[in-house]
Q: What sequence folds into this?
């Protein structure tokens, strides 16, 4: 359980996180979604006590991260896969972390096996691919057998097989009752992995809902082709129909299902030559949600990137 | 790949204790090849440069009276190189983590930052002190043997033991200061530059001070106090070895305190 309580953080005059509140619950995979620069990494760093918020707090199991008695046993985190000493072997990197908590060396071998790095554990991670680094980072996160797993963009750099492996691993962890919180800027990935979504833009909460709720909240759209467009538009509820400026026989209808449009047309004896429900993907729903909050949309100001 | 491996019986969960954090830092340093290269270089330069004058006497190239070689037989000739090697090692023990970003995993594993800062300083200082004392004793023994072959007897006077121990303590405290500078500045080049400035530039620019002030201040500068600490016989106008040791230790504690405060206050 992670509780984000009215957290704000500014860097200079750039507001990274703005009065953000939400709760991440155990037993499900919660996706943390937002465009680049939305404040995802900053929020995760605050959760781990690396960055101090200007206001508010983030509690893990009811306590700030810095007050946890055995942090690695309570929270497993992966922030930046490349943030390891390039010249200490993968095995020793994990062994050093394990030593801080008295975790036995057998557990190091165990997590290396789980992420499929046993064969390269003796190599120095300076030469690892991004995918291998991600696996090492996930191994480090799992080392303490934590009840909360917090991962920042864990599928970055993984091949399709690796992505599927992470997805199944996370679903398995959630299935065991753990709290799984992962960030991404890709809705398509979240659609396959997450049960719940927390969407932020410009540091503010945009949505906190289940995937199903997000899909349902999105308005259905139907594309209609008819030789008597004017007549059809006059029988549709006002404001629902948008004529296609490029094609005199096409009209786009929102907030009505294809069935409703067809019934209405039949009742008024308007012939329809095409009736296509426009597939509304989660991607569309996500873009619609964050459109207003898109920090970088349309402008090319000086780079204000998220501090890492 | 099943994740059920994770759900084993949960043992009593104690977090990072002092012994564990210290053990982790020992492992952190011991598992880097660069640590062993630094140690090898320290041995090579301290013994090599420190036995060079004695070698000259043994080969008949230098005058060989006890007055010429001094009570230490020139065995501290490599101490400046040794100090810079130690400083580089100590600074890098911290700044390499900032350069790679590994400091985030260090501080998520042990979020108590005072512990993290002090443990690193303690392990580096203890390691440097132990290796330095052994290497310095060995260097003196080598010089002693070389001089004996040239017909010069070098007795182990009380002043000699104190000077060699003082040289070791100086390297250990220099390491403490360098670790603190690493935490404070987070940059290898910056921390090393400040270290060299403190130990080697301050005594030089100190000579522009008015004479009365200079007499009070100069002997207590870190570089000069280190010199007094390593002197086999009392030097006029310089602090006694114990006072010099106290001064250096004071600088180390002050630097470490600043480092703890800075690391606790700022974002990683």
A:
């Amino acid at each position: 359980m992670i509780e984000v309580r009215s957290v704000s953080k500014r860097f200079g005059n750039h507001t990274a996180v703005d009065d953000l509140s939400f709760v991440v619950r155990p037993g499900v995979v919660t996706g943390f979604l937002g465009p680049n620069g939305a404040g995802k990494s900053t929020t995760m760093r605050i959760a781990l006590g690396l960055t101090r918020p200007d206001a508010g707090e983030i509690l893990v199991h009811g306590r700030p991260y810095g007050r946890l008695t055995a942090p690695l046993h309570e929270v497993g985190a992966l922030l930046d896969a490349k943030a390891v000493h390039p010249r200490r072997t993968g095995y020793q990197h994990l062994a050093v972390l394990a030593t801080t908590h008295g975790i036995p060396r057998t557990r190091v071998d165990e997590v290396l096996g789980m992420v499929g790095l046993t064969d390269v554990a003796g190599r120095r991670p300076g030469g690892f691919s991004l995918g291998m680094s991600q696996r090492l980072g996930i191994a480090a996160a799992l080392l303490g057998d934590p009840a909360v797993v917090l991962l920042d963009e864990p599928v970055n750099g993984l091949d399709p097989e690796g992505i599927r492996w992470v997805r199944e691993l996370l679903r398995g962890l959630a299935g065991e009752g753990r709290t799984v919180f992962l960030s991404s800027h890709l809705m398509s990935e979240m659609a396959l992995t997450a049960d719940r979504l927390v969407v932020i833009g410009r540091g503010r909460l945009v949505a906190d809902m289940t995937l199903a709720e997000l899909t349902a909240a999105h308005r259905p759209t139907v594309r209609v082709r008819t030789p008597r467009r004017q007549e059809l538009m006059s029988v549709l509820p006002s404001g629902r129909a948008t004529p296609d400026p490029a094609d005199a026989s096409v009209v786009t209808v929102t907030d009505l299902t294809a069935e409703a449009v067809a019934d209405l047309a039949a009742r008024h004896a308007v012939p329809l030559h095409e009736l296509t429900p426009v597939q509304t993907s989660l991607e569309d729903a996500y873009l619609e949600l964050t459109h207003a909050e898109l920090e970088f949309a349309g402008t090319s100001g000086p780079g204000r990137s998220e501090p890492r | 790949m099943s994740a059920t491996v994770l759900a084993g019986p949960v043992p009593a969960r104690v977090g990072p204790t002092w012994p564990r954090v210290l053990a982790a830092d020992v492992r952190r340093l011991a598992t880097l090849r660069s640590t062993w290269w630094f140690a090898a270089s320290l041995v090579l330069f301290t013994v090599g440069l420190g036995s060079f004058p004695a070698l000259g006497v043994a080969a008949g190239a230098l005058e060989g009276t006890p007055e010429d070689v001094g009570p230490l037989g020139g065995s501290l000739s490599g101490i400046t190189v040794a100090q810079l090697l130690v400083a580089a090692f100590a600074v890098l023990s911290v700044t390499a983590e900032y350069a790679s970003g590994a400091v985030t995993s260090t501080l998520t594993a042990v979020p108590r930052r005072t512990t993290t800062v002090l443990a690193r300083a303690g392990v580096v200082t203890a390691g440097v002190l132990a290796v330095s004392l052994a290497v310095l004793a060995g260097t003196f023994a080598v010089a002693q043997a070389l001089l004996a072959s040239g017909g010069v007897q070098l007795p182990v006077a009380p002043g000699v033991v104190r000077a060699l121990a003082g040289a070791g303590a100086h390297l250990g405290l220099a390491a403490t200061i360098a670790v603190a500078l690493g935490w404070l500045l987070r940059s290898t080049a910056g921390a090393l530059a400040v270290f060299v400035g403190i130990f080697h530039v301050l005594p030089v620019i100190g000579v522009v001070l008015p004479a009365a002030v200079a007499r009070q201040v100069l002997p207590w500068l870190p570089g000069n106090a280190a010199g007094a600490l390593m002197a086999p016989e009392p030097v006029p106008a310089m602090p006694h070895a114990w006072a010099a040791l106290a001064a250096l230790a004071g600088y180390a504690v002050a630097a470490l305190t600043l480092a703890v405060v800075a690391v606790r206050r700022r974002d990683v």
In short: Residues 113-149 of chain B form the longest helix (37 residues). Chain B touches chain A at residues 1-8, 10, 13-17, 20-21, 23-24, 27-28, 31-34, 96-97, 100-102, 104-105, 107-112, 267-268 (CB under 8 Å). Chain B has eleven helices and no strands.
